[in-house]
Amino acid sequence: MTYAISFRQILEKTGEFDLVSDTRHRTRDTGTGQFIPGPRSWMKLLTDARVRSWMKSYSSYNVRSTKGYSLEAFLKNANLTVDELFNMVDDEIRRAVTAVVQTYVNKDRPSVARNILYAVKALFLFHDRDLTFKHFRGLRKGKRIRYELIPTPVDVYQMAEVAGRMSSKNKAIILCLFQSGVRNNCITHWTYGMVKDYLYPHLKLPVNLKITSQIDTKLSGYGLGFYYTFLGRQAAESLKEYIEFRKAEGWTTRSSDLIFVTDGQANYVKGKPITIQHVEAMMKRVASRSGIDQQFGLTA
To answer: Residue 108 in contact with residue 116, Cβ under 8 Å?
Structure first.
């Protein structure tokens, strides 16, 4: 399977599909000299309008990436192009998918096999072709038992103290998670407009936070439109300290701006929205430095 088209011709420069450089001509960050990440391999598939329209139906970049890599792996293993795939009848698609999925099951890689199966099914369902498949043996394994440690208030404040030595952002995240009780995925979507009237010109406690389904993406699964939560003094003061730090770094605040962003010297790294993975990795580092047993998972 080959693609003759250049990455530069992949997409119009819109949203997260903005591809600015060909991987054969990688550019460097002017400040640090580090290479700027180029397009991912699966993005070649976006030259096809059918794949592109399907991908745009997913709001999460991480979901799009998983679907893209899975579709790419299927096409490579089945030795197909996107055009050839769409020209196949349903039974031919089933046989091709079954062969690739079974290959990964035999390699003891059931998660990859599942992702490929789900990606191909989702692609055709988006285009009004509902493919059904027989049950695959070995596609699912028994759940791995994972013990979790729920930190006590003493643990949390100890972690916040340690985190404060690392950065004001880490301390603010830990205290805000603790005092508000929100999920990791929620805090990554907090905006300046949610808190500015409670932090400026002086603190107004408690900080009242309205969490909508745009902020906590799991809300819709519970049939809720929004809920309220609150921050106490310690979390509010830490949050304001971090915001003041960002302002000193040149942040011109707007209500729609995300509060928590990435650090770093390179322009392509600094100032990007943090992800759940950023929060989880930070929590593990702080827990380790705080002496919390790392044989357990840490529940925020």
So the answer is: no
